[in-house]
Amino acid sequence: MQDTLTVxxxxxxxxxxxxxxxNRAKPAVPFGGKYRIIDFTLTNCLHSxxxxxxxLTQYKSxxxxxxxxxxxxxxxxxxxxxxxxxPPQMRKGDKWYSGTADAIYQNLWLLSRSxxxxxxxxxxxxxxxxxxxxxxxxxxxxxxxxTIACMDVPVAEASDFGVMSIDETKKIIAFSEKPGQPTPLxxxxxxxxxxxxxxxxxxxxxxxxxxxDAENPHSNHDFxxxxxxxxxxxxKVYAHRFAGNSGxxxxxxxxxxxxxxxxxxxxxxxxxxxVSPIDLYxxxxxxxxxxxxxxxxxxxxxxxxxxxxxxxxxxSNGVLIxxxxxxxxxxxxxxxxxxxxxxxASILFDNVEVGDHCQLQNCIIDKxxxxxxxxxxxxxxxxxxxxxxxxxxxxxxxxxTYQFES
Length: 406
What we know:
Blueprint: E1 4-9, E2 30-31, E3 35-36, H1 38-48, E4 52-56, H2 62-71, E5 82-86, H3 100-105, H4 108-114, E6 118-123, E7 126-128, H5 133-142, E8 146-154, E9 162-166, E10 172-177, E11 191-202, H6 203-214, H7 223-234, E12 237-241, E13 255-257, H8 261-270, E14 298-300, E15 309-311, E16 314-315, E17 320-322, E18 325-327, E19 330-331, E20 336-337, E21 342-344, E22 347-348, E23 353-354, E24 359-361, E25 363-365, E26 370-371, E27 376-377, H9 381-387, E28 389-390, E29 396-398
Parallel strand pairs: 1-4, 1-6, 4-5, 8-12, 14-17, 15-18, 16-19, 17-20, 18-21, 19-22, 20-23, 21-24, 22-25, 23-26, 24-27, 25-29
Antiparallel strand pairs: 2-3, 6-11, 7-13, 8-11, 9-10, 9-11, 28-29
């Protein structure tokens, strides 16, 4: 697809994921024991044949840039393939990116230089698997200026999305960003048609729209609030249903915006269901990431004779469970669980060490945290609230910078 350029928006602060985003951008947050969130979008590009990719970064991007360097330096520039990180360069003034549309507007020179006929605009902070090729093909067949990927969501949840109405040809005839009263589907009053934040533009239409938007002093410079509503009135804008023709990827139709602690936690727990709603095991659609060279995960008995066990959990390379017990949890690389420690319904990032007789449940522990013997987290809400962040649904988050008293 040499006529197509992909732009991944990866500069989000992710404030609702604090403290996990206090020192990293949202797309760099670990997920599923071995991945980063952005791996899912980039994997979709890889398998869809989109190999000219610009990743626009901004907020605390070092961790993200390091991950892209280590895990995604796989394309051949001699063939015109690349994943290129593009930090803010202030080519259009003296300001940082001030919206999703402004981020691309400040890099219009890259679009012009690419000579691409089409631009795929993606977010780097969603968990899903999608073949973009059928969507791009439909965009070309319709002679569209813009095609938006969409899915059915309950009306009660639709206020968090851009909501659209379409005609019989799937042309979008109305669009409202995060409406107070979402428009229901004509054939199902319990559902609305929501934007997934996945766009395919004809390059000329995108450049024209961004240049006009930049001249508007009252604009928020956002695709959902500003660009799309204006395009609908005068251009060919179509919808592409996510649950329809999925191309080569198996049709699990799973999509999650993991923008809060609770949504990130639940998406990880989804992986532990008897039949996971997202298929990570499709052999010809492997989720790519960076993996360090580590020994296999292992369970072993402790000196006291307790056996290390894990039940219904994801256990990554380098994990050592020495006399401890892990159930319904996700353990990232190099985690160590010591004698008689119990881990239940929790997520532990890289290099966490849990001391003897600890009790952890319903918590997320950020990387490099060492938990002293006998510590209890997720057991006493009052004690946890005095030390840690607790989500609306009671998930306790221990940041990487936290130092326990010895």
